[in-house]
Write a structure and sequence with these properties.
The protein has 254 residues and is an all-alpha fold. The protein has twelve helices and three strands; from the N terminus they run βααββαααααααααα. Strands 1-3-2 form a three-stranded antiparallel beta sheet. A hairpin with a 5-residue loop joins strand 2 (32-33) and strand 3.
Amino acid sequence: MEYTVQKLGQLAGVSGRTLRYYDELGILKPARINSSGYRIYGAKEVDKLQQILFYRELGLSLEIIKEILDSPTFNETVALKEHREKLIEKRIQLDMLLANVEKTIAAKEEGIYMNDKEKFEGFKQKLIDENEIKYGKEIRRKYGHETVNKSNEKLKNMTPEEYERIKILANDVIETLHKAYLTGDPASDLAQKAADLHRQWLTFYWDSYTKEAHAGVAQMYVEDERFKAYYDKKQPGTAEFLRDAILVYIEKNK
């Protein structure tokens, strides 16, 4: 069956403007343009749109999705199985959050005891799941499954105080880094403070800290477009600046 932009948009629950934007980006081209100038989509395009929407639901950017779909190694069946696994993980995480909310309500209304660790379980699992979706393949390939699993387990076992501390530290790293970037000097006191805060933040996740691993993470921030986009969001060049600051930090603390 074939669809116009309007009909495909209605079928998939997206706007015609979105479909035209996908065409402009080259992520979803129509099968053909008819004699009246309308974009026409066929079965192949319908399946591709389904894949795009799956990946969007998992939080991936259009740039990353295009890279995945354009890859010569892309396999639709394998991708669907991966989607299923990620959606199951997401459902489990949502179930945990729902249970957390329900238990909190019961604790408030009925006086049921809820310890501090239980209050944060759903949120910690959400953080783990989000990191797996966004960066799981890369960090597992770089550091191995055992290292990543230990990191996730360490996060799960954090006390409420540690969990709150890690959120504050993450914010402190970014704020200090942005101020340090304005100095233009990765060796400045402010840049070195940002590097040290970053080390402290990492140790909450890592089973053990090494300077080599710290340098490796810093380089990954530059080489991986998703990490680079995160750090460069406010100030382009920040990812490289952080890497350079960390390399100076490591050299100074040998």
